[in-house]
Amino acid sequence: GFYTNLLLTQTPEHILAQTNNKTQILCELKKEHTGVYWYRWSQGRQHFEFLVFSNTLGKVTYGANVSQDKFSVHEARSHSSYSLHISRLHPSDNGTYYCSVSQSSQLLLGSGTQLSVVDVLPLPPKTTQAPVSKKPVPRITKSKAASRKGPCSPLVWIPLATGILLLVLGLVATAHRLYRLRRRLWLRIH
């Protein structure tokens, strides 16, 4: 039987690719294994197809009628990570791809990657940008303002002076409150 499990991490979940391009699916393994199997589930044909097996020694076995030019397996990080490369994509490559390892007479499956191959990729949704108006909106940044009017630009010193003034007023009010409290305590003691 087939079981999905947590010993395999398969990424990404979905791939949308254009005809004649190439793509890859990554499978990371957290346990000892003898090699990785790759399968494709075809929704249209209701068919589970064995594509390729790659053992830890790098020997590759292909399924019946599977093109070796189209599918290749690359191994990385000492047998813990495998990627399936699919080239010259065609809409017939659509399906859900699974990486799999054999563990005590069971096949453990990855979570699956759904591949959709299209002739034309959809355009990204247009962000609502304001149309370029005829009246240019003056955008003044601090650096531009400073370079125009020197380091004492009103854009710089007005907020600065306001902040300092508020700080001083706050300090004066606090000092006055403390003085009155001290005086009251002094009067109470004496």
From TrEMBL:
GO CC aspect terms: cell surface; membrane
GO biological process: adaptive immune response; regulation of immune response
Species for this entry: Dasyornis broadbenti (rufous bristle-bird)
Xref: InterPro entries: CD8B, Ig-like_dom, Ig-like_dom_sf, Ig-like_fold, Ig_sub, Ig_V-set
Gene Ontology molecular function: any one: MHC class I protein binding
Record keyword Signal present: yes
SUPFAM superfamilies found in the cross-reference section: Immunoglobulin
Transmembrane residue ranges: 156-179
Subcellular location(s) per record: Membrane
Pfam families xref list: V-set (PF07686)
Membrane-topology descriptor: Single-pass type I membrane protein
Name the UniProt record assigns to this protein: CD8B protein
This protein's record includes keyword Membrane: yes
Keywords, comma-separated and alphabetical: Adaptive immunity, Disulfide bond, Glycoprotein, Immunity, Immunoglobulin domain, Membrane, Signal, Transmembrane, Transmembrane helix
Region entry Disordered, spans: 128-148
Chain ranges of the Ig-like domain: 4-116
